[in-house]
Amino acid sequence: MYKKDNPHKPIEFSTRGELVDTRTAYEKIVTQHGDPLYALADIAFDEVRPIDLRLSALKDLVKYGHAQKKAVEISGPGGGAVELEVRSKLINQITESFEKLAAK
Q1: Surface-to-core class of residue 81, CB atoms within 10 Å of its CB (0-12 exposed, 13-18 middle, 19+ buried)
Q2: Which of 21, 65, 66, 102 has CB 3.0 to 4.6 Å from 10, enough for a Cys bridge?
Q3: DSSP letter at 18?
Q4: What is the pLDDT of residues 72-98, one digit of tens each?
């Protein structure tokens, strides 16, 4: 978490009366216990573990390697449907351009 007035400075939190910023706390955890991503990978690919636990670990793990996909809705003029003819014309133009480049 970051402060609103300074988004580059992590919020400090208190543990046993001392102030620790989140980055320092994370580095301490990694030093003592190892990288959490490796722990998630161990859980995800351990065939002895229950499948629902493995699936949950995979869902968390994949977020670090792939951006989450979002649905995008496309509409035509006036909010109507997009005409397929427009797409096929564009595909034909692109194909012709590639063919001309390949012929050179």
Answers
A1: exposed
A2: 21
A3: E
A4: 777 877 887 776 655 677 788 888 888
Q: What are the Cα distances from residue 3, in Å, to 8, 23, 24, 48?
A: 8, 14, 16, 42
Q: What is the pLDDT of residue 55?
A: 92
Tokens of 30: 């990694």
- The average pLDDT across 20-25 equals 74
Secondary structure (DSSP) of 22-59: HHHHHHHHHHHH--HHHHHHHHHT-TTS-HHHHHHHHH
- What number of H helices and E strands is found in the chain? 4, 2
Place of tokens 């003819």: 85
Q: Is the pLDDT of residue 10 over 60?
A: no
Domain ranges of the chain: 12-62
